[in-house]
Design brief:
By secondary structure, the chain is α/β, with parallel strands linked by helices. The protein is built from ten helices and 20 strands. It has two domains: 131 residues, Lyase, Ornithine Decarboxylase, Chain A, domain 1 (Beta Barrel), CATH 2.40.37.10; 234 residues, Alanine racemase (TIM Barrel, Alpha-Beta Barrel), CATH 3.20.20.10. Bound molecules: pyridoxal-5'-phosphate.
């Protein structure tokens, strides 16, 4: 059961009735329904939502209502969170680094059956904690493609040449072996999936047995200003076509772990302009708050809309540098943002596409923090988008 949150028909009425001093994060339920339906219809396999992208219970409830049934979790608290909201939903413990005994508890208390390792040493730790005869263990393979913004293979994954031995050891442990890769986050070219599947094929060709499950991870990107990416369907096509080339068991299934693609589009951040110094603005949120993900390679700004006196405000624009409120020298958003030239303190900015890697990683550094999350109910309202 998900607790109800405050509701407003649109951002204008939020601003007119509350005039919030702290940032407000707005959830657009209809946008989450649309994107989830599109993803579930298009992806050629089982969809596991990557909880890390946005663990907000209201959003999890919306994804469930729209048909998401499986959850990729990276810790026991994420598993517990899903268990509270959706006790029946299968939870997958998809990280090779776990707190001691977490796998044991995940299996005993929460019925988790799917785990991942990327090294023999991790496998021997895992098999101490779980009943392998009722488990699937994915061997995670390191793959890198230049179009991936965050190269996850630098920290995780076994080199392809070590994969056959790792998969054989998983099989010897009594668990069902399976293969996973995660080419990166914000993957800007669907070819990355075709390439990763070709590396997968070279591993599978060396195995004396066939696998049933291939997990192609996350990475499906969203467009941001100056960061325009191909449509989702091109990624689905790349996965579908390339999985067809793999030597797999007859009842084989492909799994995907989208985070950003599902989490990003339905949430916005409404912030107040506190101070203007020529072309520098200071707002009440920043790089230690909702915008922390801009520290990572990839998009360097979000789509934005301006409000004055509770109404959208437009006009001739110029580029502004946007600064957060803390004392830290790094609290500046990387991209310059075009905004009306007459913008002034007391105006509000609504940043769209903010739902992924935002709520989950903000801090209360310097005492700046907001937990006000509201729902925007009018179905014709859309967050700013590119
Ligand atoms: C194992 C794993 N799965 C899925 C994801 C989700 O990735 P994305 O949000 O790019 O779809 C990540 C992101 O870091 C990940 O590490």
């Amino acid at each position: 059961m998900v607790d109800a949150i405050e509701e407003f028909a649109d951002v204008g009425s939020l601003l007119r009735t509350v005039r919030p001093k702290d940032p407000v994060y707005c959830i657009y339920p209809h946008v989450y329904s649309e994107i989830t339906t599109e993803f579930l219809k298009g992806f050629p396999g089982r969809v596991l939502y990557a909880v890390k992208a946005n663990p907000n219970p209201t959003i999890l409830g919306l994804l469930l209502a729209a048909g998401v049934r499986h959850f990729d979790c990276a810790s026991l608290p994420e598993i517990e969170l899903i268990d509270e909201i959706a006790p029946e939903a299968p939870k997958y413990f998809m990280t090779p680094v776990r707190i001691r005994d977490a796998a044991r508890t995940a299996q005993k208390k929460h019925g988790v059956r799917h785990f991942v390792v990327d090294h023999l040493s991790g496998l021997s730790q895992l098999v101490e904690e779980i009943d392998t005869s009722r488990s699937v263990i994915f061997a995670r393979m390191a793959v890198h493609h230049e179009s991936a913004m965050e190269d996850l293979s630098v920290r995780f994954g076994a080199p392809p040449e070590e994969m056959p031995a790792l998969l054989q050891s998983i099989r010897d442990s009594g668990a069902e072996p399976a293969l996973a890769f995660n080419v990166g986050s914000s993957v800007t070219d669907p070819e990355a999936y075709r390439y990763s599947m070709s590396v997968t094929k070279s591993v599978l060709d060396k195995l004396p047995f066939r696998l049933r499950l291939i997990d192609v991870g996350g990475g499906y990107p969203k467009s941001y200003p100056d960061f325009i990416v191909p449509e989702l369907e091109q990624y689905f096509k790349a996965v579908e076509e390339s999985v067809g080339t793999l030597p797999l068991a007859d009842n084989a299934e492909v799994l995907g772990e989208p985070g950003r693609a599902l989490a990003a589009p339905g949430m916005s951040a409404v912030v107040e302009v506190l101070l203007r110094k020529d072309s520098r603005l200071y707002i009440n949120d920043g790089m230690f708050g909702i915008f922390w993900v801009l520290r990572i390679d990839g998009p360097d700004r979000f789509p934005v809309r301006t409000y004055r006196n509770g109404k959208p405000h437009e006009g001739e624009t110029m580029e502004f540098q946007i600064n957060g409120p803390t004392c830290d020298a790094t609290d500046t958003l990387p991209g310059l943002v075009p905004l009306p030239t007459d913008i002034r303190p007391g105006d509000y900015l609504e940043f769209g596409n903010i739902g992924a890697y935002s709520i989950g990683g903000r801090t209360n550094y310097n005492g700046f923090y907001s937990d006000r999350i509201v729902s925007i109910t009018s179905p014709k309202e859309r967050p700013p988008a590119v």
